[in-house]
């Protein structure tokens, strides 16, 4: 179910999600039209029965959410395999909750999460042993810190804006 680009808010989105019993993928990303979800909306969504079966959640660019809402949501999303929380104001606290509750996570986007530190990334990679890919572009974490992540999980694919830019320069 995708709300991306829809003019929806906390109440209407939560009502739809609670009614979607077999929901597996949830996309409530912000777009230029503006899905206006806040922590209160995520907390309401987290009470939906389907949350325990979600395999993919995208919260990209939702400026109205913080650790409070994300922690509530991921604490019940035990089947989660793909998570996009890029462009939000989350901190390490959200990553600690993901590491604790989402052990089946395969990919995560934390692109442009400027309040996440190396400690949060280390906890995430250490707790999510099935993690295959992480997108860390646009963060304040120094690139040399990513070597520590590879020490924890040598097969981890670390994507950053620098890698994308370097690849496009080599192709040109």
Automatic annotation (TrEMBL):
Superkingdom of source: Eukaryota
GO CC annotation terms, alphabetical: SCF ubiquitin ligase complex
Residue spans crossing the bilayer: none
Domain F-box/LRR-repeat protein 15-like leucin rich repeat: 37-126
SMART domains noted in UniProt: LRR_CC
Example GO biological process: SCF-dependent proteasomal ubiquitin-dependent protein catabolic process
Pfam family, one: DUF7885
Protein name per UniProt: F-box/LRR-repeat protein 15-like leucin rich repeat domain-containing protein
Protein species of origin: Oryza brachyantha
């Amino acid at each position: 179910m995708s709300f991306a680009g829809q003019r929806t808010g906390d109440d209407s989105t939560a009502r739809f999600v609670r009614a979607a019993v077999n929901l597996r993928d949830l996309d409530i990303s912000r777009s230029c039209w503006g899905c206006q979800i806040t922590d209160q909306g995520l907390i309401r969504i987290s009470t939906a029965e389907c949350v325990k079966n979600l395999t993919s959640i995208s919260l990209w660019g939702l400026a109205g959410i913080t650790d409070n809402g994300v922690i509530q949501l991921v604490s019940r999303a035990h089947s989660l395999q793909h998570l996009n929380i890029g462009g939000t104001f989350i901190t390490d606290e959200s990553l600690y909750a993901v590491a604790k509750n989402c052990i089946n996570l395969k990919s995560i986007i934390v692109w442009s999460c400027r309040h996440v530190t190396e400690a949060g990334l280390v906890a995430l990679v250490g707790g999510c042993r099935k993690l295959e890919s992480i997108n860390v572009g646009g963060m304040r974490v120094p690139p040399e810190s990513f070597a520590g992540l590879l020490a924890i999980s040598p097969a981890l694919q670390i994507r950053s804006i620098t890698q994308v830019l370097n690849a496009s320069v080599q192709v040109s």
